[in-house]
Model the fold of this input.
Amino acid sequence: MSRRTAGMLAMAMAMAAAWAAPAEESGKDPTVKPVTLHLSVRSRRLVEDDKGHGVWKAETAARAMPAAETALVLCDVWDKHWCRGANERLAALLPRMNEVAKALRGAGVLVVHAPSETMDFYKDSPARRRVLDAPKADPPAHIKRDDPPLPVDASDGGSDTGEKSWHRAWTRQHPAIETDESRDAISDNGLDLYNLYQQRGIRNILVMGVHTNMCVLNRSFAIKQMVRWGFNVVLVRDLTDTMYNPARPPYVPHEEGTRLVVEYIEAFWCPTTTSDEVLKGLKGK
Done:
């Protein structure tokens, strides 16, 4: 082998190593076989019925999401909430949330843990560091969207179990949700996550967690902001809950209040899907 050929070979090997390092540092697992998530998603469109009345029509569509370009965000799945009713409803969702997160992680989806106001707990976490170390990126100008009032009144805080005062009861994400420090991300900051998404080529975001009419819509890492930045966002509608007191307008059962908020999101912000669809979609069915 000539000296020139040996030099070129050494340079090629060095370049290959340099390109491999960022993927490892960013949490990607090179052993994960790339897959595409096939989902049926539901949205709503205002149409006229056969009598000329305006009605909101549910429409379903197929959506393909390459796992390597997709993130799952667990919004404010805290260890404890100040509202007993909220704790009880979340407890019923936790096993399925963890099942879905584990399945998506195994397929190569980036799992983002976003328990707001608890980042001090994760100061030594590699998954937290992964977000903070992502190179800075400038987000685009906001896409303008209609933002009409919500269909439920939660001005009293939304507790359905009698608690009157808000206080910070949470300290971390609920321990029932597993974290893979070698692959996952931890953040409650939308700009920091935008940096990571740009580094990783993320274009699609699945969202689950609590509460749909508050944090899930309004956090800097959640639905409204990510839609305004142009991401393809989908809410997993059976793995979420509202803060809503049936003693407030529109005076419907709590579950109905959640359904109304989900339909509002489908009409004005993003489509929704179910955990069944997500798991089925991983199998390509």
Q: What stands out?
A: The first helix runs from residue 3 to 25. Residues 205 and 233 are 5 Å apart (CA to CA). The mean pLDDT is 90. DSSP finds eight helices and eight strands in the chain.
